[in-house]
């Protein structure tokens, strides 16, 4: 096994850690603190890293552990989970209304993802947003396949219910009658 330097680990794996955290939590003021906590845990653990797994798998597991801790601390704090759509360049073929509707739907999705319990949220984000297989998720978070499948199914169902409720509430607000403005003559 080769010796891993702190700077090599941060340079090689830091961008992936930061990207994963942004997908899970969005661009919050404390995302940098969470990233630093992950890197601190990695640096502390380097001397004991036995090489029984890939370095990236080991770092991913640390990232998830720190993310779980943060989710538990901030479980009821409103926020959002970022998806890559925020970083996409604008499509000139779309009109402004279509872009606005897509942005609003993404905002609702972010809000609803944030409302999911941590384990369900991680399963949904890793599988449906990051594209990991169930087996890869099992290896990364260290739980049985059936548990991940159950969390994913429950997370999707809860997310669908939250989205339905949010869209229904939004439609009701936009359809409610506006007060009539009367002039003073």
Describe the protein in words.
The protein has 185 residues and is an all-alpha fold. It has two domains: 1-77, RNA polymerase sigma factor, region 2, helix turn helix motif (Rna Polymerase Sigma Factor, Chain: A, Orthogonal Bundle), CATH 1.10.1740; 96-174, Arc Repressor Mutant, subunit A. Helices cover 68% and strands 0% of the residues. The chain has seven helices and no strands. It has helices at 6-25, 31-45, 55-73, 96-115, 118-129, 134-141, 145-175. Helix 1 (6-25) packs antiparallel against helix 2 (31-45), helix 1 (6-25) packs across helix 3 and helix 5 crosses helix 7 (145-175). The protein is elongated.
Question: How many domains, as an integer?
Answer: 2
Low confidence ranges: 75-90
Distance between the termini: 87 Å
Secondary-structure element string = HHHHHHH
CATH architecture of the largest domain: Orthogonal Bundle
Secondary structure category: mainly alpha
User: Major beta sheet, specifics?
Assistant: none
Which outline best applies? Answer: elongated
Helix content: 55-70%
**Distinct helical segment count:** 7
- Round the Cα radius of gyration to an integer and report it: 20 Å
As a percent range, the share of strand residues is: under 5%
According to CATH, what is the topology of the largest domain? Arc Repressor Mutant, subunit A
CATH superfamily of the largest domain: Winged helix-like DNA-binding domain superfamily/Winged helix DNA-binding domain
Number of strands: 0
The CATH C-level name of the largest domain is Mainly Alpha
The averaged pLDDT comes out at 77
